[in-house]
Amino acid sequence: MRVYDPARNASLALGVLPSGNADSSIDIQSGGGAWQGRIECSYAPGFVLLPGASMESDPLWFCMDAPPVVADAQYAWLLRYYCRTDTMKHAPRAWVTIPDTNGLAALRREAAAARAMGVSHALIPGNWEGRPGSHEGGAPQYPRKIGDAARSLRDAGSVPGITLDPLLADSGSNDFTTQSVDGRGWVNLGANDGRAYAVKRMRRLADSGFGFFVIDESQIPDEVLRAFNLTRAQARTLAFDVAREAVASLPVAVFPAAVATLDAGRDEWLEAAGALSRMAELTIAPGPVRIRSGKESVLDAETVLALRLWRGPIEFVGAPSRSMQSKLSEIFSGKPLVARPQDAYRRNPLTWLMRYDNSAIGNVGATILSFTGADPWGMAQVELFGDESSPGVLWRPEKDKPLVEAEGVLPPASRFIAHGLLAKASQPLFAGTTEEITLGLNRLKRLDWDGGRNTLTGALEPAPGVSSAFFFMPGDLTLRSARVNSKQTRPVVEGQWITLPVGSGGGAFELIFETR
Questions:
Q1: At a CB cut-off of 8 Å and minimum separation 6, what does 214 contact?
Q2: Residue 326 has what DSSP assignment?
Q3: What digits encode the pLDDT tens for the residues 225-259?
Q4: What is the pTM of this model?
Q5: How big is the chain by its Cα radius of gyration, in Å?
Q6: Rounded to whole angstroms, how far apart are CA atoms 362 and 357?
Q7: Of 113, 343, 413, 513, which sits most exposed with the smallest number of CB within 10 A?
Q8: Order of strands, edge to edge, in the sheet holding 121-124?
Q9: What is the model's pLDDT at position 294?
Q10: How far apart are CA 316 and CA 393, in angstroms?
């Protein structure tokens, strides 16, 4: 929970660090001139504290008077290093599923339609078992050997996933299983033998060809949890631990079932992306979010961009409408955009910072994205990732020319706009291109500065619609010559700015400078 007063620049952030043993929540509301509510750590159902054992509440984290972007970073770091978290390795961008009243034939049809827009994963919903906990398909919707369903989806070109509850088991030793009054069997994952039994069963499912698991919220009754002396939170945590252990050596991802459904609107997806962007950056895998994609759904450009900022899987129930598919294929054809919200106190952040830095290239500056409606934003408010030097130049491409913003202030955004941010440097800098969103910084494959020869060389991946690349040089240098793909070219030089024609083909460039 975040409380922020921009007029006083005062902030308070509260967060719970979940231990996996209890369900904790924060519910505080403003009313009557005061903040009222409660912070609760619930162990339910009640359980027996054995002799010599202890219990404690989930830790509560406070952060006062730090900028919201800093508070977000601290909380995400604590989640990553304090809690047991899953990684984003092998995580699909999206998958298609079907209502649980349908079967394999319907899933194959929807998966085929979804593949046309770049969605290559298909999820079997939780209705597939003939008997709960049997791990056998129920006729006529699914084959008895559920591995045959996985093989069928793979043969059709999709990576199959399956929804399951690791706590369900229709067999097993009475030492670690029990039945509820409705006749369903349950395995005690808190017992060593029960855990080993569940891991073995799930490993068999993974070996039969499934590429990802979705763990459903268990319907295990409270009386069974009491018999196992487990809280519901502990049982949920153990279910994920068992699944991850079963696939530890396999390229198989484990996710919770989707619990949120969002409309195909910009603000909903900016809120989701802003809430979890820090965690995704620390390889904490966000759970899937289901998108509501009716026939009337149309994705505008800013909604497409918001969906690109979302770092977790998107779940489609049935293939999206034709009106959405071309836009969605644009999203899934490339990688998600890695960005951090700067107005983190907003429910739907409108100002985002993307910074590009890797060992092969080094720091090449940043891109600031302003969505329609973003407030004016001074550079002193922009997070610099620990860089103590003040920003040097704030600019944007305008009609194939670099335009520098006066006084380093982002203007209010009446439309979506991307700015480049350059820190002060003693060498020439690659500033970006005319590409609308990332300014081409994410397409830079190589960049080298040879100070002895005063030569800047690099290479860009091709991109349609890009005509020029921009460079910024210190005041004591002047450009002597330039080449693109080994051919001499004539760039436009205005003051410290160089506009180099590159065309949509991209390729290698070389700029040679001399001292004034």
A1: 123, 161, 162, 163, 164, 255, 256, 257, 288
A2: H
A3: 999 999 999 999 999 999 999 999 899 999 999 99
A4: 0.89
A5: 27
A6: 5
A7: 113
A8: 253-256, 212-215, 159-164, 121-124, 94-97, 314-317, 289-292, 261-263
A9: 66
A10: 42
73: CB partners within 8 A, 6+ apart:
278
Exposed/middle/buried for residue 7 (C-beta within 10 Å: 0-12, 13-18, 19+): exposed
Q: Which of 201, 203, 198 is nearest to 188 (CA)?
A: 198
DSSP character string of 236-251: HHHHHHHHHHHTTTTT
The structure tokens listed for 239 are 């279910």
- What is the residue-averaged pLDDT of the chain? 89
Inter-residue contact 280 to 312 (CB < 8 Å): yes
| Residue 45 preceded by cis peptide, ω within 30 | yes
86 in Cβ contact with 284 (< 8 Å): yes
Whole-angstrom CA distances from 109 to 104, 206, 370 are 9, 23, 39
Residues 6+ apart with CB under 8 A from 130: 136, 137, 138, 139, 144
CB 267 within 8 A of CB 237: no
CA-to-CA separations, 263 to 26, 48, 285, 289, 373, in angstroms, rounded: 25, 44, 22, 10, 20
- pLDDT of 130: 94
Count of Cβ atoms closer than 10 Å to residue 183 Cβ: 9
N-to-C CA span, the chain? 55
Which whole-number Å values give the CA distances from 245 to 40, 84, 210, 386, in the listed order? Answer: 31, 13, 15, 37
Q: DSSP state, 194?
A: H
Determine which helix (DSSP H) or strand (DSSP E) holds 278, and give its type and residue range. helix 266-281
Helix crossing, 266-281 with 68-82: angle to 10°? 50
Question: Kindly report the CA angle at 398 between 488 and 356, in degrees rounded to 5?
Answer: 75
Q: Which of 171, 179, 80, 161 is nearest to 133 (CA)?
A: 171
Query: Letter for the amino acid at 87?
Result: T
Q: What is the pLDDT of residues 150-162, one digit of tens each?
A: 999 999 999 999 9
Tokens 């802003």, located at residue: 274
- 184 CB-contact burial (10 Å; exposed 0-12 / middle 13-18 / buried 19+): buried
pLDDT classification of 379: cutoffs 50, 70, 90: low
CA pair distance 279, 334, nearest whole angstrom:
21
The 10 Å Cβ neighbour count of residue 450 is 11
Please state, in angstroms and rounded to a whole number, the distance separating the CA atoms of residues 417 and 399.
13
Q: CB atoms < 10 A from the CB of 393, how many?
A: 21
What gap in Å lies between CA 419 and CA 257, rounded to an integer? 38
